[in-house]
Amino acid sequence: METHVRTDYSMTASPGQVLPVAVRGQGCWLEDADGRRYLDACGGAMVMTLGHGHPRLLEALERQARTLAFTYRFSFRNEPMLDLAERIARVAPGELEWCFFNSSGSEANESAMHLAILYWQALGRSEKRHFLARTSSYHGSTLGALSLSGRWRAPFEPILHPYAAVPNGETAEDGLSALRAAIDARGAETIAAFWVEPLTGSSGAAMELPPGYLQGVREICDEHDILLVADEVISAFGRSGDWFAVDHDGVAPDVITFGKGVGGGLVPLSGMVAARRLREVVSAASGFGYGHTFSGYPLGCAVGCAVIDTVEADGLVEASAARGARLRAGLAELQARHPVIGGLRGRGLLQGIELRDPRTGESFADAAGASERAAAAAKDVGLMIYACPAVLPARRVEAVLLAPPMIITDEEVDEVLARLDAALAAVGRELEARPAD
Ligand code: PLP
Q1: Which of 121, 178, 253, 351 could form a disulfide with 167 if both were Cys (CB 3.0 to 4.6 A apart)?
Q2: Residue 240: phi, psi to the nearest 5?
């Protein structure tokens, strides 16, 4: 038999970079093949709700794998899927209750696009088939979800729809008048739904919505018969210190999409939960026949149930608020000592650190790569954080994101802060030593 030679680069997701080989994960910690340990303060891409190797999830996975791993949704319903839908309906705001499951956040947003179009068609308003989203946003990499996104479009721009046309606005007033202008420009009669991330992830490092914005969006959408979709692929199920980030504003959208953490990092799982009336209208007409092979598969849904049960039983929504407050207080102390920190934002255990040029105290004028440099400096001291550069219309934002598992202890929060302290000192020195622009 031919021996397979493992090269340094062939298996990495980022060609050209030699990444360490991860071999083990437990709780908030990862270990690589050289025995180095990393405190995982971002769950890769904000995925590890309950940390690595959580016994309750492993048990649910194993039990379900032995019982029934897969059924196809056009042949059977299955118990984990029904149980998961029931759990989500229980914690979701307003009359949100109808769930449809997928594997990725992008698919969840695609399904919400399908649902919105089918809903308006069923009501005899098939001209409502376009969407609006914010210019600084990310909703996924499939072409529909990328059409909704303001970020990472460039190579595909010619084949994308120009949906991400609504400037976010620094204030609620600015954001709402931008939404009104976009609706007027395109005609409300053509718009099926408006997409918003109530707490941003990679499109802006934990930016909250300005106070009053989401309530205003709800009113405008109601006024114009436009569905409101909240993309909570990152924030759903406790990370923000409430079950959903929209709960902080007391607003019930028509659809919430979720993903990432609902599968606990064990299984790909995502979905949407939609208002009862959407289900009623669509099922009385065509039904909802669009989805993917793994939509609602029992193995994934069983893990999803175990995630939600654990969040509930262990009080992790409250824990997220409490550990998040401790993390934020520690970050504020670091800010007082590190000139490279330009600002802090976020809720619960999704916290963003905006970086600034330590030489000028201003945002970076050039592509300094500060976000990646900070993430690399953190990795050097055994801390995983998420690099999050963004280009807003008015300025370039260099930032990093923290999204540790919701099971993190106070001691581990303090350890995150201690390692961050060392990393920020190192990146601050590196940025100060750069040649002048
Ligand atoms: N929506 C938001 C807010 C996200 O942050 C992401 C991924 O980062 C997605 C959607 C897409 O999710 P996925 O990469 O699982 O398709």
Answers
A1: 178
A2: -80, 0
Which residue lies with its CA nearest to atom 5 of ligand 1? 201
Q: Is 151 in the pocket of ligand 1 (CB under 6 A)?
A: no
Distance, CA of 47 to CA of 50 (rounded, Å): 9
87 — pLDDT class (breaks 50, 70, 90): very high
**Cα of 140 from ligand 1 centre, angstroms:** 5
Two structure tokens written together for 191: 């718009």
- Rounded distance, CA 282 to CA 57, Å? 34
Token match 């993917």: residue? Answer: 292
Is the distance from the beta carbon of residue 138 to the nearest atom of ligand 1 less than 6 Å?
Answer: yes
Using most ligand atoms within 8 A of CB, pick from 103, 134, 138, 142 the residue to mutate for ligand 1. Answer: 138
pLDDT at 17: 72
pLDDT score for 106: 98
Cross-strand pairs, 38: 30
pLDDT at 7 exceeding the cut of 60: no
pLDDT above 80 (res 328): yes
Helix (H) or strand (E) holding 105: helix 105-122
The atom number, within ligand 1, closest to the CA of 141 reads 16
Question: What would the pLDDT profile of 236-282 be if each residue is shown by its tens digit?
Answer: 999 999 999 999 999 999 999 999 999 999 999 999 999 999 999 99
Structure tokens at 62: 């194993």
Whole-number pLDDT of residue 307:
98
Compute the distance between CA of residue 100 and CA of residue 173 in angstroms, rounded to an integer. 34
Report how far residue 170's alpha carbon sits from residue 163's, in angstroms, rounded to the nearest whole number. Answer: 20
CB count within 10 Å of CB 140 equals 24
**Two structure tokens written together for 399:** 């930032």
CA distances 121 to 113, 137, 184, 200, 301, Å, are 12, 27, 22, 31, 30
State whether residue 42 is helix, strand or coil: coil
Mutate to test the pocket of ligand 1, among 260, 292, 294, 401 (most ligand atoms within 8 A of CB): 260
Among 213, 203, 187, smallest CA distance to 135 is for: 203
**Cα-to-centroid distance, 71 and ligand 1 (Å):** 25
Q: Which residue has the tokens 């970076």?
A: 364
